[in-house]
Design goal:
Order of helices and strands: EHHHHEHEHEHHEHEHHHEHEHEHEHHH
Number of helices: 18
Radius of gyration: 23 Å
Strand order of the largest sheet: 1-10-9-7-8
Number of strands: 10
Mean pLDDT: 96
Bound molecules: 5-phosphoarabinonic acid
CATH class of the largest domain: Alpha Beta
Number of domains: 2
Oligomer: single chain
CATH superfamily of the largest domain: Glucose-6-phosphate isomerase like protein, domain 1
Structural class: alpha/beta
CATH topology of the largest domain: Rossmann fold
CATH architecture of the largest domain: 3-Layer(aba) Sandwich
Strand content: 5-15%
Largest sheet: 5 strands, mixed
Length: 447
């Protein structure tokens, strides 16, 4: 098996190789600190050896539950927010057919999402879509108390119970939550739902390789064993025994921190493959929530190319020079489409006749890289040999490991998210939630 590769050559000229290698000792220390469990947030390091510690029995249990839902359901609703849905959606979108639906391919249930917003129209339309369909629910919440998924689940559970009765509903709901605490844990025990545990020491945004990600991914018909195997290979490739120059996670962490110090405050994750849109969304949470604290941290943005070259391309080429770009490139497409010859050639494209569409895409990618570098945008390139379970597993773990190292290099605790509570406190106060009486009075004076 090959490995995803990292190329930082096109950052040189903005920062030097010497600058990056001056970070070697620091990066190695951060890797060692992660592995020794002696750094900030060290009670949330369960993800570090997660790939290599997933048991065969654990995978089989997830697969068996997924198979049951696959047999029962046309549609499975994944309920969760942030780290409790983004990993699953990233992998499912990346590896599922774009236009495949249950109606014309009865292999896989349609996966839809809820609990990641509080949109009344969204929930109305989802409920309408589910009417008359055989559906199931995977309800994911580590705390078990997050408002968005709890609200959506209440509505969907009622709809399911009304449609098929309480007893059947039990067979169609799986809860993924804390092993002992929280409202979802209590409800699941009371109702007798099948449950999976989110380990105490794995935070939401690092949980894609726990049942949080693996169960929905398996329901979508994706090979979770290969995904985990890919992650295992990257776990090995980024271990403490790997020299700095050969550790892609350490090099990525050191490079982006040097760029940040040089004034590049925004990192744009770009792809040239539309299926990777949600990998970027997952990545934004991973890095944004891990590093954006203590008034520090790179701002994480993302674009899908070439689509967004026609919207954000101008800004990237000529706007404020505070950005660098990390591009995920997929070397080989899965399918083959050639540009046909056309007698009339009114569109002038006959010079491409017989060429693969991917060849055109690759030239767009190369042309964009050179243009952006010329325009003052350092470029980091991550190449996946192809878009499959194995290399996606590598990519996810690569980003997680680099995030841990990068957060330590920045000097923050990459494993907490205290800032997320601020809006919740205000929302509860405004909603007059019991227990928030003082905050409710205080907030009324401010509006
Ligand atoms: O990364 C995180 O910890 C968060 O994004 C959480 O995953 C998110 O807030 C959902 O929390 P919970 O799973 O407790 O409902």
């Amino acid at each position: 098996m090959k490995q995803i590769t990292l190329n930082i050559d096109k950052t040189l000229g903005f920062i030097s190789k010497e600058q990056i290698f001056a970070q070697e000792a620091n990066a190695k220390e951060c890797v060692a600190t992660l592995h020794a469990g002696t750094g900030k947030g060290n009670d949330f390091l369960g993800w570090l050896h997660l790939p290599s510690s997933i048991s065969e029995a654990g995978i089989n249990d997830i697969q068996a539950t997924a198979n049951k839902l696959r047999n029962q359901c046309e549609v499975v609703v994944v309920v969760g927010i942030g780290g409790s849905y983004l990993g699953a959606k990233a992998v499912i979108d990346a590896l599922s057919a774009t236009f495949e639906a249950f109606e014309n391919n009865r292999k896989n249930p349609v996966i839809v999402y809820a609990g990641h917003n509080i949109g009344e129209d969204y929930l109305y339309e989802l409920s309408s879509y589910l009417k008359g369909k055989q559906f199931g629910i995977i309800n994911i919440s580590k705390s078990g108390t997050t408002t968005e998924p709890a609200l959506s689940f209440r509505i969907l559970k009622k709809q399911l119970e009304d449609a098929i009765g309480k007893n059947e509903t039990k067979e169609r709901i799986v809860a993924i939550t804390d092993k002992a605490r929280g409202a979802l844990h209590t409800l699941a025990k009371k109702e007798g739902y099948k449950t999976f545990v989110i380990p105490d020491d794995v935070g939401g945004r690092f949980s894609v390789l726990t049942p949080v990600g693996l169960l929905p991914i398996a329901v979508a018909g994706i090979d979770i064993k290969q995904l985990v195997l890919g992650a295992v290979s990257m776990e090995k490739a980024t271990g403490t025994d790997i020299p700095f120059a050969e550790n892609p996670a350490a090099i990525y962490a050191a490079t982006r921190n040097e760029l940040y110090k040089s004034g590049k405050k925004i990192e744009i994750l770009a792809n040239f493959h539309p299926k990777l849109h949600y990998v970027s969304e997952w990545w934004k949470q991973l890095y944004g929530e891990s590093e954006g604290k203590e008034n520090k941290g790179i701002f994480n943005a993302s674009v899908d190319f070439t689509t967004d070259l026609h919207s954000m391309g101008q800004w990237i080429q000529e706007g404020e020079r505070s950005i660098f770009e990390t591009v995920i490139s997929v070397a080989a497409p899965k399918y083959k489409v050639e540009v046909p010859f056309d007698e009339e050639d009114l569109d002038g494209l006959n010079f491409l006749a017989g060429k693969r569409v991917d060849f055109v895409n690759k030239m767009a990618e190369l042309g964009t890289q050179l243009a952006h570098v010329d325009g003052g945008v350092p470029n980091i390139k991550i190449e996946m040999p192809e878009l499959n379970e194995y290399y996606l597993g590598q990519l996810l773990y690569f980003f997680e490991k680099a995030c841990g190292i990068s957060g330590y290099m920045l000097g923050v605790n990459p494993f907490d998210q205290p800032g997320v509570e601020a809006y919740k406190k205000n929302m509860f106060a405004l909603l007059n939630k019991p227990g928030f009486e003082t905050e409710s009075k205080a907030i009324q004076a401010r509006i």
